[in-house]
Design a protein that fits this description.
Elements: H1 2-35, E1 47-49, E2 55-60, E3 70-78, E4 89-95, E5 100-101, E6 110-113, E7 116-122, E8 129-138, E9 141-150
Antiparallel strand pairs: 1-2, 2-3, 3-7, 4-5, 4-8, 6-7, 8-9
The structure holds copper (II) ion.
Residues 95, 98, 100, 126, 128 line the site of copper (II) ion.
């Protein structure tokens, strides 16, 4: 009777050892990533030219806050300085060192007239390095302008 109890207890431990180990290893990797500092030469400029050069975007994020839905304004013009159809634009983002996106789904950009657009539903959920990306759909795929934020 005693032996059976001991064996059963040992069996339970071995059952937990693998998932527990994986959990700890996964957690440790995440902690190491979280501790990595953002690049020292991070470009914090609020005006950025897209990687493909098809547009220039300026962001006016207003008051930055953690864990609050924010509505931001963007000035976005094509290479000729003209507005871009709002339907060709979208915004997303995330934390490059943590491998996760925004905890929210930003709304579709709304034209405020001219080259001004408004995007709601932008949220940061923790301190650290965040990237917010403006995508412009083009026949050759998305052209993207990136903004860095240190929270
Ligand atoms: Cu994170």
């Amino acid at each position: 009777m005693m032996m059976t109890t001991l064996t059963r207890r040992r069996f339970h431990w071995s059952l937990w050892a693998v998932p527990l180990g994986l959990l700890l290893a996964g957690g440790a990797t995440h902690v190491v990533l979280m501790l990595l500092p953002a690049p020292a030469d991070l470009d914090l400029a609020r005006t950025q030219t897209s990687a493909g050069g098809s547009f220039v975007a300026t962001v006016a994020p207003g008051d930055l806050a953690i864990d609050r839905q924010m509505t931001w304004q963007f000035d976005i013009k094509d290479a000729q300085g003209a507005p871009i159809a709002a339907s060709a634009l979208r915004v997303d983002g995330g934390m490059p060192l943590h491998g996760h996106g925004l905890p929210s789904q930003p709304s579709a950009p709304q034209s405020l007239g001219g080259t001004l657009y408004e995007v709601g539903g932008i949220r940061f959920s923790m301190p650290g390095w965040w990237v917010v990306k403006v995508h412009r759909a083009t026949p050759d795929g998305d052209d993207i302008a990136e903004f860095n934020f240190l929270m």
